[in-house]
Specification:
The structure is a homodimer. With about 210 residues, chain A is an alpha/beta fold. Chain A is about 40% helix and about 20% strand. The model of chain A has no long low-confidence stretch (mean pLDDT about 90). Chains A and B meet through helix 1, helix 5 and helix 8 of A and helix 1, helix 5 and helix 8 of B.
DNA sequence: AACAAATAAGTAAAATTATATCTATAAAAA
DNA sequence: TTTTTATAGATATAATTTTACTTATTTGTT
């Protein structure tokens, strides 16, 4: 097993969300075929993905829904808490701070940073907005593992460096730029521009899916 | 040529953003190797991607930066305007509405919709917030092609249906659910949960990239 | 109790995508 | 003008991912 495919990993949250949306009768079971139909995926792919997380279904029965949810949540690390800081309290940054849903995924935003003096000292939903100078120290002291970058493109790389200096091991980057980081630090880009490109390209096609 | 790889399509905006970040001396040229080094990609991959959009470089010279930018912008449809509506004026929806950067990508948000009566009638940066009832009519009248979904999971499918009823041909879905749509309608999911899964999984690994 | 039907799991094949190698071309230098 | 050198473009190889197929298991039915 060891290494799991990246695409599989990206599908797992979709399975989890679907399973959670089901009316939860205890001891209910669901077949791989049913999941596949609901999510418009291949039946075999679903089985393969689920077997990768260590779940096993029973023939003629399927997978016990509650077990599967627990398996997935454990595997995805939603049960273990990850501490994060947000850098860049602009439109997007504020929205990410205010959105409470990340807690369901094990993500706790414990602080925010901005270069704008007008924002520093504020509290947003209980999280302090601090000066950029304090970033590395704060991250080390608070044992922060994840940095969320919601700053303009030009500021992204320096902010990323500051996060890494603070010991952050994973960066979630909302800026449309490529960031360089040492090995062992994961840069995950939330690429809205790429999404838009796909939309825009689709609209230019006469008739396609 | 005909069909272009999805992964290629997703990389194109990255190239474009990088090229635009360059200090623009007129008639400046850049080699595929230089782009590859800056974005930490394979040199051959860059050439292959760029040739897919119809750009040709010259040996020992590379690609003319300005031409390349224009090519990419045209190919990605950033020069042709796409009219969009936003559904769901919550934290995220507001941030998307307030963020002005989408205009650079050819996306014009011309209206917003919400089920909350307290919001209806407001103007946000010049865009009206309307009732859900008016959605299909508005989309048809205003010739809207793109719908942006920033609603809770449970509301996503009905809202998506309403958008499609209004003639929308592409949906940008921020809700963590799979949406069903007829052929010819593109559903593009902005999958934050998947991104978080990758981050969380990485942090669980002892030492990996 | 035996059989049939349905399903999961494991294995193999196909398609897609990325990487490497090679060739030809064009500009710079001698 | 000739030679050298770096680069684009094309071709081929490799790796990854998806799909198809086969096998074995388990439950429900006769």
């Amino acid at each position: 097993m060891g290494s799991i495919s990246k695409h599989t990993l990206q599908r797992l949250p979709t399975y989890l969300a679907y399973l959670k949306s089901l009316p939860c009768a205890d001891n209910a079971c669901i077949s791989a075929a049913a999941i596949a139909a609901a999510l418009e995926l291949g039946e075999v792919q679903v089985r393969k993905d689920l077997s990768a997380v260590g779940s096993a279904g029973k023939p003629r029965i399927g997978y016990p829904v509650n077990d599967l949810i627990q398996h997935l949540e454990y595997f995805l690390g939603y049960s273990t808490r990850n501490r994060a800081v947000l850098v860049g309290v602009g439109n997007l940054g504020l929205a990410l701070l205010s959105y409470g849903g990340f807690a369901d995924y094990g993500l706790d935003i414990v602080g925010a940073f901005d270069s704008n003096p007008a924002l520093i000292g504020l509290q947003i939903d209980g999280r302090p907005v601090l000066s950029m100078d304090e970033l590395p120290t704060f991250c080390q002291r608070e044992n922060v593992q994840i940095g969320i970058l919601a700053v303009p493109s030009a500021a992204a790389q320096p902010c990323c460096d500051a996060l890494i200096a603070g010991g952050v091991r994973a960066v979630w980057n909302f800026a449309p730029v490529h960031l360089k980081a040492p090995d062992g630090v994961l840069i995950q880009r939330e690429n809205m521009a790429s999404s838009l490109a796909l939309l825009s390209y689709h609209l230019k096609q006469p008739e396609r899916n």
